[in-house]
């Protein structure tokens, strides 16, 4: 019997309508379009403004988009994995809320937390569940309302983040398509450089934690930058070497969208031609676990069956890695 592979058979996405551009940000804090553009590469980001809506709102819209495009029915889904650091609530899982809103009753549904690397971690898990034969139609989400954990008085982090959601449908195939290899790593000693100080079990919410603005992203930018470059560039090169892929063999490189200068470093190291690198950071900023599936959603038309695609990411933890997949349609 030939090996079962896990292949992406559909993509959906959603970004909120509201555009927060560098101009507006410059009226909120001491920053400028020039600084943000040259240091990070972001021009604008989307913000979910509707009251009483969270990450599941955007994830459901992304899934509805996928269902419509692929003709998939909610009742066919048997597994839902949601990569997010900004779930609607601490519990229950965002996955169970999404399942309910989509009318999915008979699926295993749970969240995975690997910060910005969440989508590649979730996709790798989905591949294992499918290769084992246990699940057949899996929704893998990367969805974030980063604005809910962004301190708009902190110019060192506020320009970076945006909101959005992407989702892929993953199914079994006996063709040589889908997730071919995955290399993902963790170095927990990096945790202190990028985290949310309060709201967890060590420092639950209190008046003091709110006053100290500890319910938002804390980041030591330069340290994270250095590790992100080393991690993403290194693992992208490693997964290509391990699988005998040259830069010419790689049809598309989809890097996590945190900083254009980090993306440039990955491009230089891998040697992949710039016009085969998917970049939308200028429009959406860093949507954490959602960057890669949103890139896929926007670029779906460019991909051809059998295309070699390298996904790579770096995030809090630290976590970082790369996935090699062959596009399925
Ligand atoms: O997605 C998860 C992983 N996250 C990342 O990969 C992010 C990695 N880090 C980065 O992308 C960059 O470190 C940042 C974009 C966060 C910061 O860029 P940088 O080039 O490392 O700037 P810096 O922190 O070294 O700051 C340089 C200067 C400082 O001023 P002085 O001390 O030189 O006078 C900052 O105070 O820029 C200043 N600065 C700003 N100026 C205008 C910092 N933020 C701003 C701002 N506008 N928004």
Q: Tell me the domain tally.
A: 2
Spatial strand order of the main sheet: 1-7-6-4-5
| Small molecules in complex | oxa(dethia)-CoA
For the secondary structure, the number of strands is 13
CATH topology of the largest domain: Peroxisomal Thiolase, Chain A, domain 1
Number of contiguous helices: 10
Helix percentage range: 25-40%
Mean pLDDT: 98
For this entry, give a set of tags.
329 residues, Peroxisomal Thiolase, Chain A, domain 1, five-stranded mixed beta sheet, 10 helices, 25% strand, globular, binds oxa(dethia)-CoA
Outline of this structure?
The chain is 32% helix and 25% strand. The protein is of the alpha/beta class and 329 residues long. Helix 7 runs parallel beside helix 8.
Structure in words:
This protein has two domains: 5-177, Thiolase/Chalcone synthase (Peroxisomal Thiolase, Chain A, domain 1); 180-277 and 289-326, Peroxisomal Thiolase, Chain A, domain 1. The two termini are 23 Å apart. The longest helix is centred in the C-terminal third of the chain and has 22 residues, at 221-242. 32% of the residues lie in helices and 25% in strands. Helix 3 packs across helix 4 (94-102) and helix 7 (221-242) packs parallel to helix 8. The mean pLDDT is 98. It has a five-stranded mixed sheet, sandwiched between helices. With 329 residues, the protein is of the alpha/beta class. Oxa(dethia)-CoA is lined by residues 31, 35-36, 39-40, 116, 155-156, 159, 221-222, 224-225, 228, 258-259, 262, 286, 314-315.
